[in-house]
Amino acid sequence: MNLIMTIITITVALSLILALISFWLPQMSPDAEKLSPYECGFDPLGSARLPFSLRFFLIAILFLLFDLEIALLLPLPWGDQLHNPMGTFFWATTVLVLLTLGLIYEWTQGGLDWAE
C-alpha cells in the first residue's frame, strides 16, 4: 500500500510541476508570416484539407488489427513453459484461425482491392 501511495504522489507531483512549468514558459505569438502557408515560395494552389479515400482508413485498421495479433502472439514461444502448454497453443491457434478467417472474408468482399 505504501508503494502505491508513493507512485500516486510522484505522479501527481510531476503532473503539477509540468503544468506549472508550461505556464511560466514564454508564449509563442503567431504573426501573419508564421501563419501563412509555405509551398516552395508559391501561393497554395488548393485547399490543404483534401478528402482521402476511405480505403486507406480500412487498410490502416486491418494493419493495426494484424499488428496487434502479432504482438499478442510474440510471447507464444514461452507458452511451452506453462503448466498447461497445450491449452495455450490451442487458444493461440484459435485466435490465429479466427483472424485468418476474417482476413479471407475481407479479401473475398473486396476490401483489399484498390481498383473499383
From TrEMBL:
Catalytic function, reaction form: a ubiquinone + NADH + 5 H(+)(in) = a ubiquinol + NAD(+) + 4 H(+)(out)
Transmembrane segments: 7-25, 52-76, 88-107
Family: Belongs to the complex I subunit 3 family.
Cell location: Mitochondrion membrane
Keywords: Electron transport, Membrane, Mitochondrion, NAD, Respiratory chain, Translocase, Transmembrane, Transmembrane helix, Transport, Ubiquinone
Gene3D superfamilies recorded: NADH:ubiquinone/plastoquinone oxidoreductase, chain 3
Official protein name in the record: NADH-ubiquinone oxidoreductase chain 3
UniProt-listed Enzyme Commission number(s): 7.1.1.2
A single MF term (Gene Ontology): NADH dehydrogenase (ubiquinone) activity
Protein source organism: Abbottina liaoningensis
Protein purpose: Core subunit of the mitochondrial membrane respiratory chain NADH dehydrogenase (Complex I) which catalyzes electron transfer from NADH through the respiratory chain, using ubiquinone as an electron acceptor. Essential for the catalytic activity of complex I.
InterPro entries linked: NADH_UbQ/plastoQ_OxRdtase_su3, NDAH_ubi_oxred_su3_sf
Enzyme class, first EC level, given as a word: translocase
Membrane topology: Multi-pass membrane protein
Any one GO CC term of the record: mitochondrial membrane
